[in-house]
Specification:
Blueprint (H helix, E strand, L loop, with lengths): L4 E5 L3 H11 L4 E5 L2 H10 L5 E5 L7 H10 L8 E6 L5 H8 L3 E5 L3 H57 L5 H20 L7 H10 L12 H4 L7 H8 L1 H10 L8 H12 L20 H16 L10 H9 L8 H9 L1 H13 L5
Parallel strand pairs: 1-2, 1-3, 3-4, 4-5
Helix pairs in contact: 1-5, 2-3, 5-6, 6-7, 6-12, 6-14, 7-11, 10-11, 11-12, 12-13, 14-15
């Protein structure tokens, strides 16, 4: 087994010999007579477990070596014991400012240097091993969290797709809504910091968007699958899918915590509300409407326009865009419409891709 390496830096050969004799039985010793050579040895041996460093040396002194190590981020990985003469003013304070592990004054007692050196090596190695274990644990936790998120996303998509299959649709509407929602949210996060949107919130809203129409599972087939225009009475029944969805979500509220349930509820209930108050079910207006619901509302309307339905034909991308911007599909938040304008080419591109290939989120 290869020995661990210690670097001894001192311009006095006798001092290097004394220090080398203390550690040579257990460690491989590397020597340097000045700071400049020391920096070269450090670069050649980044796995050093200890450096015993003199202060006063020709060419480059000990503090020059410390400055080099700090700039190269070696001081966090390699412990340094600075060996200094008692006549060097403020050397100890300066050394600790750099981050050395210990300072020993000349003349030194060899057995003390050996004991301190081995203690520091063990301390740094324990710290390194602890950091490695924590890193491994963190990676394992992240992997587990990702697996849970993937499983949850699968269940959410499966549940929300039930409605689409009832409507004789392909199931791709859910994936497209999530994709369009994510695009709009990215522009909102970038250009509208007033909403304080974080990446985590963006991900949660995009996932929650999949459940926007879950309440349609409670709408009778005669209305849900009707190929023509709904009567006023039938439309009132269709409107209840927003509150039915919230009733479904409420049954799982006790098992949910945090903002994800809030986004699911907001989107499910309010994605048909409009900026001027002419939406449903609660006739909210302006900023009364949660931004999560308003983002999904635009994504939902756009996808409905560019996708075939039993009651309508497909609108071209530019026509769908102009219809939304001109208020033909209801009034939307000016901020969200600005995000749609920024996302116009993104939306057009993904729709064209969908037409040619199976859409994958």
């Amino acid at each position: 087994m290869q020995k661990q390496r210690i670097l001894i830096v001192d311009d006095e050969e006798v001092n290097r010999a004394i220090l080398s004799g203390l550690f040579q039985d257990e460690y491989e010793i590397i020597e340097a007579p000045n700071g400049q050579e020391a920096t070269a040895r450090i670069l050649e041996n980044p796995d050093l477990v200890l450096i015993l460093l003199d202060v006063v040396m020709p060419v480059m002194d000990g503090f020059g070596v410390l400055k080099f190590m700090k700039e190269q981020d070696f001081l966090e990985k390699i412990p340094v014991i600075l060996i200094t003469g008692e006549t060097v003013i403020n050397s100890e304070e300066q050394a600790y400012a750099y981050g050395v592990a210990d300072v020993i004054h000349k003349p030194f007692y060899p057995h003390i240097v050996k004991r301190r050196g081995k203690n520091i090596i063990e301390l740094y190695q324990d710290k390194h091993h602890m950091e490695e274990r924590l890193k491994e644990q963190e990676e394992a936790i992240r992997s587990q969290e990702k697996k849970i998120r993937d499983n949850n996303e699968f269940m959410i998509d499966a549940l929300s797709s039930v409605v689409e299959f009832r409507s004789l649709e392909t199931g791709e509407h859910i994936r497209r809504i999530k994709y369009f929602t994510r695009i709009l949210l990215k522009y909102l996060m970038k250009y509208f910091p007033k909403y304080g949107l974080t990446q985590e919130q963006l991900d949660e809203i995009a996932r929650a968007a999949a459940l926007h129409d879950i309440g349609k599972i409670g709408i009778p087939d005669a209305i849900l699958l009707k190929p023509g225009r709904l009567t006023a009475e039938e439309f009132e029944t269709m409107k209840t899918h927003t509150t039915i969805g919230c009733d479904i979500l409420e049954k799982f509220r006790k098992t949910q915590s945090g903002t994800f349930y809030q986004y699911c509820y907001e989107i499910c209930r309010y994605h048909h509300e409009r900026w001027d108050g002419n939406g449903y079910p609660d006739h909210l207006a302006g900023e009364e409407i949660p931004i999560s619901a308003h983002i999904v509302a635009v994504a939902d309307v756009y996808d409905a326009l560019v996708s075939p339905r039993v009651y309508k034909s497909v609108y071209a991308n530019n026509i769908a865009y102009e219809m939304i911007m001109n208020g033909e599909c209801g009034q939307f938040s000016p901020d969200v419409l600005e995000c749609l304008a920024l996302a116009r080419e993104d939306f057009f591109n993904i729709v064209e891709v969908i037409k040619q290939y199976d859409f994958l989120s």
